Amino acid sequence: MGRIVTLLLSAILLLSSSVIYNASAQTFLPDIEIECDPESRIEVYPGSTYSGFFTCTLSNPTAYSEEVEVTITSGPLLSMGPGTVTVGPSATLDIQISLRAEQGMSVQSIAVETKAVVVSFNGIDATALPEASDTADTSAMIMQYSAP
């Protein structure tokens, strides 16, 4: 009888612990997370596109919709991406960033920083709230080619 009670209590404790650990925390202030591909390769030989791309994932851990402004700092490279995007509550959104080099650039690695800032939180201007932002770094690799 003692073994059955111990076994039953153990089973109840194991089942209840899985319920407790599956709960996720959500915040009531704006928050955003950004993760980007670590590298983008750009070919600069004559006739190539001189372009490279990388993908970033924006994650909204809050229970409210957020409007997020995306800015890209890419040094000598021309960069293009969405200016502002809307990320739903507890959702993720993939965006693509485009980089363009000039023909004949020398082989090098250029640091690219992508920053996400929450500008609207559940339809309310977020400038009066503490800034919610995150940054991600990517390396743009200018690939080698041989010229005659």
Quick overview of this protein structure:
By secondary structure, the chain is mainly beta. The chain is built from one helix and ten strands.
Query: Which structural class do the helices and strands define?
Result: mainly beta
Low-confidence stretches: none
Give the H and E element order. Answer: HEEEEEEEEEE
The largest pleated sheet is described as: 6 strands, mixed
How many β strands by DSSP? 10
Account of the 3D structure:
The chain is mainly beta and 148 residues long. It has 1 helix and 10 strands, in the order αββββββββββ. The strands form 2 sheets. Strands 2, 4, 6, 8, 9 and 10 form a 6-stranded mixed beta sheet that branches. Strands 1-3-7-5 form a 4-stranded antiparallel beta sheet, with no helix packed on it. Strand 8 and strand 9 form a beta hairpin. It starts with a helix and ends in a 6-residue tail after the last strand.
Keywords:
single chain; 148 residues; mainly beta; 6-stranded mixed beta sheet; 1 helix; 10 strands
List strands and helices in order, with pairings.
Blueprint: H1 2-21, E1 33-36, E2 39-42, E3 51-59, E4 66-73, E5 78-80, E6 84-87, E7 92-100, E8 108-121, E9 124-125, E10 133-142
Parallel strand pairs: 2-10
Antiparallel strand pairs: 1-3, 3-7, 4-6, 4-8, 5-7, 8-9, 8-10
